[in-house]
Write a structure and sequence with these properties.
The protein is of the alpha/beta class and 164 residues long. The protein contains five helices and seven strands. It has one domain (2-161): Glutaredoxin, CATH 3.40.30. The protein has helices at 2-23, 63-79, 96-105, 117-122, 151-161, and strands spanning 34-36, 42-44, 52-58, 84-90, 111-114, 131-136, 141-146. It has a five-stranded mixed sheet, covered by helices on one side. A two-stranded antiparallel ribbon has the order 1-2. Strand 4, helix 3 and strand 5 form a beta-alpha-beta unit. The N and C termini lie far apart (64 Å).
Length: 164
């Protein structure tokens, strides 16, 4: 019985730490993070242009991620001239070729990079994917969206946050 209590306590402690890491507020600009392009070149998200940047974490194996790609494509098309830039960060580390082929097949019209654990930690950890963050030019998170993206909700937020 003593071993069971010890194991239960360790599991509870580990789960608590994981939950806290997912809720940690990152220090500094969340855009100050390096990602890789399909050729393995390093790119800093601080270089992304736009009044607001919708950063979307996803993976090619993630069904909900695939389902929201058409919404992201529409948001990029409809709001790019109004100050929004959509950036997809694939968490398919080490498989740039597969991500590139997928992005081309899906006609992803927004920036697509490959991130890693450091990228995820810059955003305070993720409870899962897909996960998206609406970030201003100063690198402050204005809105968080966990799970499949709802275009109508994002549009309401954009209409509030984008310059008129």
């Amino acid at each position: 019985m003593g071993k069971l209590k010890s194991v239960s306590l360790i599991v509870l402690l580990a789960m608590s730490l994981l939950l806290l890491s997912c809720q940690a507020k990152p220090k500094g600009s969340v855009l100050d993070v390096e990602v890789k392009d399909f050729d393995g070149k390093t790119f800093n998200l601080m270089e992304v242009k736009g009044e607001l940047i919708l950063v979307n974490f996803w993976a090619v194996w993630c069904s909900p991620c695939k389902q929201e790609i058409p919404e992201l494509i529409k948001l990029q098309s409809e709001y790019k001239n109004k100050g929004l830039t959509v950036v997809g960060i694939s968490l398919d580390v080490g498989d740039a070729k597969k991500v590139k082929e997928f992005a081309e097949k899906e006609y992803m019209n927004y920036l697509v990079y490959i991130g890693d654990n450091r990228t995820v930690q810059r955003y305070g950890g993720l409870p899962g994917i897909p996960a998206s963050f609406l970030v201003d030019r100063q690198g402050d998170i204005k809105k968080r969206y966990f799970g499949s993206l709802n275009k109508e909700i994002v549009e309401k937020d954009l209409n509030t946050l984008l310059p008129k």
